[in-house]
Target: Anticodon-binding domain-containing protein
Amino acid sequence: MSVGLPKCFSYLQSKGFLSLNSRAVRIKELDTFGIIIKANLKRCLNDYNRLIDKFTVFPVSRVESISNLNNHLLCGKKLDKYAVSFDSSDLVAPISEPNNELSLWSSKSCLKNLIIFCDPNKSLNLFYSFQNERYRWWRKLSGCPSHFHQSQIGKCATTKEENVSIDFKSPLVDDKTLCLETIKYITDRDQIKNSIGVESSSHIIWCKTFPDNATISYLIDGCITDDEGRFKEIWFHESLTPYHVAITIKPSQDSILNSKLVAIADFLIKELKEFGITVFPFKNQNNALDDKSFQWFDQIGIPYSISITEESLRLGVIGLRNKDTKLEEEVHVTRVKINLLLYLKLMKPFDIKLAIMESNKAS
Model:
């Protein structure tokens, strides 16, 4: 193990979130769970970009050059209340010191871009409010919001554009800086045309997000240590967690009962997935109900666990366990999805009421 490599990376590798290279001196790539975290984060970014307040957002699947935007959706449109989201590629080093670049992992990364076209009379206020809103958004997904920092607004002397960055710092990586996002405010017409290839009287706010940096940040942010500084488990916001719930079965000596317990598990998996609740891959032999199973689920950041026993066959109830409290409540099989939707905040209250009504009709 390299002396310079943070210990949290070794811990994250042991839990299946990332891989180190053969000499264990730098991050090689994201592993299975890390890939899922990144996909969840990109989905959250896409949802935000698509639903940005008061603006019609046009997604562009992918453009190799920003100037090509004009040929896709913007040609001939009035650009006062429009925004465009798209992906671009760039070479990114997720962790680097300000003056002495220390590349722990570099990849040809896909960056998320959001360009907002706004009224020149309102653009400056929008820039200030937007960058504060983005700062709050990043902190909302964190277990330790103080790890996320917003830079002072800088101003380029030649172009007069203003810019701000949102960064991640943690003592687990010696307070090295990871840039999560940069936000530029551009008012000069010539510069706007040179930047995006579009003639526009509007001002633009250009938000560029680095998903790889953000994924590594939330992996580090989620590492929880005990009083002696040893890593014990990982915490993720419900929007980022690799899986929302894991299912375990207390096996019976009776093979017929076992098959019925597995049938309950299959029913729950199908129902939960229909409501967007992700379930840890279920294998009957590997999901036996014991403390080690719960400990493993806690360590990889799964917030809820379901335990199915013979009581589930007699009374129709399962055990629903919360990772943070370690408490288990008895829930009827028909109510599991409702409780999880409430706890995970995956649906709006009105939608949950409709789901409850449907559940009551079914029972």
